[in-house]
Specification:
243 residues, alpha/beta, Rossmann fold, DNA polymerase, domain 1, 2 domains, 46% helix, 11% strand
Length: 243
């Protein structure tokens, strides 16, 4: 594994949140399974969770294409949930369980390496989110997971979703930094490809269990991005060689 050259040393790092920092599949699938059990429903919680995630991407795509007005992620999640409940004839889900499911996205656990690794990175550099999530969602996730950020950049601030370049460049501008002074950290290749097109450095973090092993997660080989790491503790160690 090659070390990054000193010239690559970043002033700040921007982190994708869902999948990269927090285990959305584990948290949401457990909430779905609990709701189904409470209401006496026999349905596949794993399939429902994956379908919900796909519907989230479809909802964002409609906004990006101009076929739907700007909406916060919480709104997209809730509309997708209601549509899936109707599609799968799960009308027995109580109103309370529907609300708890919608709120499950606000209480997702970080991956085990995130807390320590993020703290080590933050000891020497700015760390901030750059997420399609809305601000209150990110606040709740940070508080739930005990994660300390220097800033929370989110789609609300820019009125658009990644991979729109306004998100990456807007975060750099608000920090007073040039894109080349900033690294984007994500487990999604498309996110990093878009960040690189905007001039940011890129870090791929492997999250092979992002989809609970049900669907193939993104992967990358050394050299495809500025850094390729197995987790946040390795990221911290690699960055510490750039001090």
């Amino acid at each position: 594994m090659r070390d990054a050259p000193k010239s690559m040393s970043p002033r700040a790092l921007l982190f994708d949140v869902f999948g990269t920092c927090v285990d959305w599949y584990g948290g949401v699938s457990r909430a779905v399974a609990a709701a189904f059990a409470a209401d006496g429903l026999v349905a596949d919680a794993a399939s429902f969770t994956l379908a919900w995630r796909r519907a989230y991407f479809d909802g964002m795509a409609e906004v990006r294409a101009g076929r739907a007005p700007w909406r916060r992620i919480d709104s997209i999640h809730r509309d997708a949930l209601d549509a899936l409940i109707a599609e799968n004839r799960l009308d027995a889900l109580s109103a309370g369980d529907r609300e708890r499911l919608a709120r499950a996205w606000h209480a997702l656990d970080p991956w085990p390496d995130v807390g320590e690794g993020l703290a080590r990175v933050r000891a020497h550099r700015w760390v901030a989110t750059l997420s399609n999530g809305n601000l209150d969602l990110l606040i709740d996730l940070a508080r739930h997971g005990g994660l300390a950020w220097d800033a929370l950049f989110c789609s609300d601030l820019f009125g658009c979703f990644k991979p729109d370049p306004r998100t990456y460049l807007g975060a750099c501008r608000l920090m007073g930094l040039e894109p080349g002074q900033v690294m984007m950290v994500a487990c999604h290749r498309s996110d990093l490809d878009a960040a690189a097109r905007s001039g940011l450095r890129t870090v791929f973090v492997a999250r092979p269990m992002e989809y609970g092993g049900k669907t193939q997660a993104d992967c990358a080989n050394e050299g495809e991005f500025d850094l390729v790491v197995a987790g946040f503790t390795e990221l911290a160690a690699r960055l510490e060689t750039m001090q």
